Amino acid sequence: MRAQPVRYRSADEDSARWLGFPFRPGDIVISTRSKSGTTWMQMICALLIFQTPQLPAPLSELSPWLDWLITPRDQIFAKLEAQRHRRFIKSHTPLDGIPIDPLATYIVVGRHPLDLAVSLYHQGDNLNRHRIRELTGQPEPAEPARPRPPLRDWLLSWIDSDTRPADQMDSLAGVLWHLSDAWGRRNEPNVVLAHYDELSADLAGQMRRLAALLDIAVAEETWPVLVRSATFAEMRASAARRAPDAAGVLKDPAAFFRRGSSGAGRETLSAEELTHYYRRCAGLAGPDLLTWLHREPATG
Question: Is residue 270 part of a domain?
């Protein structure tokens, strides 16, 4: 008997929305932490499924975020039920919080946590928090939010935070819990791990790998346009239809695709601070996962 999924909740997410979801053969669940390449993987799956960059609808409509409280659960279920194409569903929930169904394939994307954190920091400035509260029914804060500290100070605090993963999934502990859970399932036939830096270094090769794992055939002459359409430059150029902003919570959709390359976190910290970061990680995750996760990005 499978264990009951863990429930993960935040102000605008609830993994319990997965309970009772009717899976279909071929469903794809994209499970990532925030700013780890979620939208990138959604786009890759869309390109493999439709085999054209001319998608029939904005990416967030084709691949809805099931956990997000912005849209009522019944509406998301109805939208997915109506889809006739192979479904690919976004989630920020770890796999232990999602029903694992043999009909589905689960893709988990890992990214160097420091790069994720820097991207998360900048994304915070691009969110319309009033709009999010409005859509989720949250009250306005009694006092104005305090200004955030500079990036380096914020990053050091992020590294040392002792918040439980279940309470703050975008903390360092939460990021490593999400990936540790997936790493422990990596030999299961319907669990696929992908690394952000591998996608960056060899997008064509990684897209071919994913197509094979998803049992999707692509004509050889079609590959160049699909790979080009999945590049960071193309994603940013078409941000209005690619950014996850169906509800209008981003101040600037193009800013969602801010940098795309790796190394920003390591550039921000001193050698001593980096040593502290790696020591902290060693207490939160196993050495094999950390070796895979902390690979050096390829250079040209």
Answer: yes
